[in-house]
Structure formats: structure tokens, C-alpha cells
Amino acid sequence: MSSTQPPISALDDAPEQSALENELAVLLVESLNLEIAPAEIVPKAPLYGEGLGLDSIDILEVALEVSRKYGFQLRSDDERNQQIFQSLRSLAAHVAQNRGDS
Questions:
Q1: For residue 97, what are the CA distances in angstroms to 33, 42, 56?
Q2: How many helices (H) and strands (E) in the chain?
Q3: Residue 87 pairs with which residues in a beta bridge?
Q4: pTM of the shown model
Q5: Which residues make beta-bridge pairs with 54?
Q6: What is the Cα gyration radius of the chain?
Q7: Are residues 86 and 51 in contact, defined by beta-carbon separation less than 8 angstroms?
Q8: Distance between CA atoms of 81 and 86, rounded to whole angstroms?
Q9: Three-class SS of residue 66?
Q10: CA atoms in the 13 A half-sphere facing the CB of 31
Q11: According to the lineage, what is the superkingdom (predicted)?
């Protein structure tokens, strides 16, 4: 193992939004009519409850929009939902792993 490589968590700590995070931030703001600019959503801030303040209905709407836009299903019975919707960054990581090649 080389000590010259940055730790994997270094990417997780980046305060700026990635391109996909920005796309998802725009989707969140537009689909939920949030009164915040997409760029103001902190990638690691919680989406649910504290942080952005989304509730379960908001999360369902986001799941529908993500499914439509990225071509894969986010299921309400997925045991990973709490992890997937933990933050903008965790949602973006899930979308990056699962989106269709359209």
C-alpha cells in the first residue's frame, strides 16, 4: 500500500458538490419547491429531518424523480434507504452505482 495516495475518505470530505451532486441538488429543489439554491445544499448535510428538513413524503417524491431521471427503481422497502438518503453525497453515490446507461 502506498502512502502517497489520498485516503478514500478524502473525497467524502470535499465540501463542494460534484457534478452529479449538483444535478441531484437541482432535482431536489425543483421537485420539492425548496426555498434554497441548489448550490447551498451541503453534500454531507442530512437530507431527512434536521439538515435539509425533508420528511418521508419528500423522500418518496425524490425517489420517484430519481427513478424517472436515472432509470432505476428506488424501492420503499429497501433496507438501505436510510443510508441512501442520509445526505446528498450518499444519494449521489447510490445513483452513480445504479443509473442506467441512457
A1: 27, 21, 23
A2: 5, 0
A3: 46
A4: 0.81
A5: 48
A6: 14
A7: no
A8: 8
A9: helix
A10: 20
A11: Bacteria
